[in-house]
Amino acid sequence: MSRSSFVALERAARARVGSIVDNKYRLDEFLGAGTSGAVYRAVNTWAGREVAVKLFHYEGGAADTAMQRFVREAQAANRVRKDGRLHPNVVDALDVGRDGPTGLLFLVQEFLRGETLERHLRDLPARRMSAGDAVYLLLPVIDAIACAHEAGVVHRDLKPENIYLVRQGNHDPVPKVLDFGIAQLSDARMTHSHELMGTPLYMAPEAFLGASGVDARADVWALGVILYQMVAGVPPFTAADDNPMALISVLATTDPVSLAEQGLMHASAWAVVTRCLARDPGARYPHARALHDALSALFEGL
Questions:
Q1: What residues make up the domain containing 74?
Q2: Is the pTM of this model over 0.70?
Q3: In the chain, what are the helix, strand and coil shares in percent, each to the nearest 5?
């Protein structure tokens, strides 16, 4: 999408503030826009509840696929259950539909107050936290992804920007997993094998070969990258401008700098992280539940 086209889409998105979607969602504030949709703070005027509304406004090739992914966000998130209820560390998708007057697809989610993990890290000294604090904060996220894997859902785009820290007064922030828009559902594969899905800095090596080779172990890789970044202040693998081709070379030839040798993490915890970051998917934890169990067993020693 050209810059001028995106500017036009954003202008149109901002102009919708004050309008009503599906006869009940009043758009009160424009929060942001991407290539596929715009997000608003809104109010369900029937229930009097503050919510977040995403409106689909994609313009470009493969529009049907983009639309399916937009709807899939609600479908995937609602599969992530714990004890028969939506997992408390996954953003709640409340409604999905098509607005009659405009024909626009919409997705309604709970409105969250707080900040992303990416923003939180940016504001910390050296952009990092202790290993113990990092594990404590990330364990609920790993549990949510474990429940997703058990439900046949692979997130495929885990990164600090997609973990939201919800502020609740003086209590510890509650992390919530966002954006299941490119999630893979075991009973609804629609990604062509040659497509690259995800954010390069957090993509497992096999993901650069195409989406068909991606499974739960790619999420385990991403969780390992996130945990490393939380403790080290930088991701374990980087390349100029996050260039995918350059990253492939780095992943193939470079090992991450040991957090244990830097004194930032206990050796036993570092062994867990290095297993997450194994180049061979078969050498990683097979799913997030195994990673959660390994970290939980070590937590007392962190």
A1: 3-110
A2: yes
A3: 40, 20, 40
